[in-house]
Amino acid sequence: MDTVRRRLRSGTVLLGGVGLLATALTACSSAPDKRCVDRDSYRLAKGYKVVSDKNCKATKVSVNGAWYYGGKKKGSWVDGGSFTKPSKGSGSGSGGSSHSGVHRGGFGGGHGSSGG
Predict the structure, then answer these.
(1) Closest Cα partner for 64 from 34, 33, 37, 35?
(2) C-alpha distance from residue 115 to each of 44, 102, 106, 108, 111 (Å)
(3) Which residue(s) pair with 49 in the sheet?
(4) pLDDT tens column, 16-28
């Protein structure tokens, strides 16, 4: 009986530690990717050209740089994201519109759906 109780406690500690680690990793990865892109470089098959961050920080640059959130990077191009910065924790952009920003899906991801 004592051995069973001891195993149960160590299993609980292990599961608690794994849960804590998962929570920490999720919190760190919840921020969407942010890249500086050239707004004038859009190509239908590729998306936007990723440029140096200095093009989004400085005012006197030769590139029309802007921050681009989310999306998938393929080489030096990114597509499928948004220029709207998502609000913290909600996955949607500022202004309350659920169609702006980065939407990552999950349970209840559809609008007006009842699940099932």
Answers:
(1) 37
(2) 34, 22, 12, 7, 10
(3) 38, 77
(4) 665 655 555 444 5
94 in Cβ contact with 87 (< 8 Å) = yes
- Those residues with Cβ within 8 angstroms of residue 79's Cβ, 6 or more apart along the chain or in another chain: 46, 47, 48, 71, 72
What's the distance, CA 30 to chain centroid? Answer: 5
With a pLDDT cut of 90, the percent of the chain lying above it is 40
- Structure tokens given for 78: 């990114």
Neighbour tally for 68: CB within 10 Å: 26
Q: Model pTM greater than 0.70?
A: no
Burial of 28 (0-12, 13-18, 19+ CB in 10 A): exposed
